[in-house]
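Researcher: Good morning. I'm working through a list of sequences from a screen, and I'd like to move beyond sequence-only analysis. For each chain I'm collecting a predicted structure so we can compare shapes side by side. This is the next one on the list. No need for commentary yet; just the structure.
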Amino acid sequence: MEHDLPSIKSWKSLVKRRNNPQEGGKSSWKMKPVMALMCTLLLIFWYKTTNIQYQQTQIEETDYPFEMAKESEPVSEKLKGLPFGIIQPRSDLELKPLWSSTSLRSKGGELTNRNLLAMPVGLKQKDNVDAVVQKFLPANFTVILFHYDGNMDQWWDLEWSSKAIHIVAHNQTKWWFAKRFLHPDIVSIYDYVFLWDEDLGVENFNPQKYLKIVKKAGLEISQPALHPNSTEVHHRITVRSRTNVFHRRVYDSRGNMKCSNTSEGPPCTGFVEGMAPVFSRSAWFCTWNLIQNDLVHGWGMDMKLGYCAQGDRSKKVGIVDSEYIFHQGIQTLGGSGYPEKKVSSYLLLPDGEYVAFASRAGVCNLFVCFDDEQIRRQSTWELRTFKERWNRAVEEDKNWIDRSSSTRNRISNNRRFKRSSVISSLLQSQAEETRK
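Model: Good morning. Structure tokens for this chain:
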């Protein structure tokens, strides 16, 4: 028996040695398909990521061919010399006194909300600008004035002038100033940005009441309504309604632009004019990127502002009626004299679009006079250029989706038409089979 025991143990060990490699081989064969699938998925992911990065690089090289070497470097690489906690990527337009760590405007305590009023101004509209600023300062607004006539020293006699920010550039427009000095990273602390003209009467306007209405209505882009007797009224939607607190659309069957319940785009709904727009923080971030750096008159932008409304423009864009202004229609760039009543005319472009404008004799400032025909010719060229850029951008950006209500309805109607066509063809085929 003693000789039999080792033989039994040896047989058991032999069986184990033979069985273990087989079991290991079976388990390894089971894992191979899973490993192959994982490797395939990783390769696909790597390929798509690399392809997207390549396409983005090509776009950036096209847009910024001379700066690509610098811009391609990640931001983190440019800032790697700084500890993360010290980095402040944003700023503001708050004045800081030399003797205190708080801003001049907030000496009375911490402000719960911050808003910005930005205006292009000329010396000859000084009284009107004074009246506007006097309305906004008690509401804790920061004020920035863009002096297009080069005359800044003669504003210091106003009590509030030292509290405002003054920027001077000869013969530049509101949109030129806004593009260069109201970058979203600079104005991000402000809840709302008022980008107004200098010829607006504010006797019936209260900024605080206005913002209360805007917030309650959920308007991302808005403007105060115009008094019906305003010198210049280009679009009916901007005229004040005596019976409404605010409105989002207009119904009008007169003139070239007819607006009804079926109208789903500007200037019938989702529209504000460029004279007195008000933007939320998010809407301004989008609008600043929409402003073209070289197109200074801003023609055509009002028709596209609704795309920056952070949602349905027919709901997020509106006109406030209870707080309204009077558009005096005074010639900008320092024009003088009392304006006569101007009747809006419409310029018909080759693509069938009408552009509203008012006839003027000319525009002058302290340095030079411009013929109105020359300005209108330049503005019309800029409008065409802007439209061409928009259409080209839409065509080239395959991932962009037009979220306007009119486009959604058109898509749904096309789908409905296709669905009805399919159903009718199926019924027709069934009828033919029945006859057979």
